[in-house]
Design goal:
two-stranded antiparallel ribbon; about 35% strand; elongated
Length: about 55
Amino acid sequence: MRSEVVVLIRAHGAIVGQFDLDADTVGAFSEDDRCVLRAAADGFGGLLEPPTAS
């Protein structure tokens, strides 16, 4: 492994999982890649939260 990006998935105020991507290429992941993974992790974590009353 030459590159890695790890983004935590949070729900209910706790870490419930993670995305952990590896690549054989040095510098394979950009800040944009990290931002997309963060958005996905936030989305998954949000699915685990109860809906809020409006």
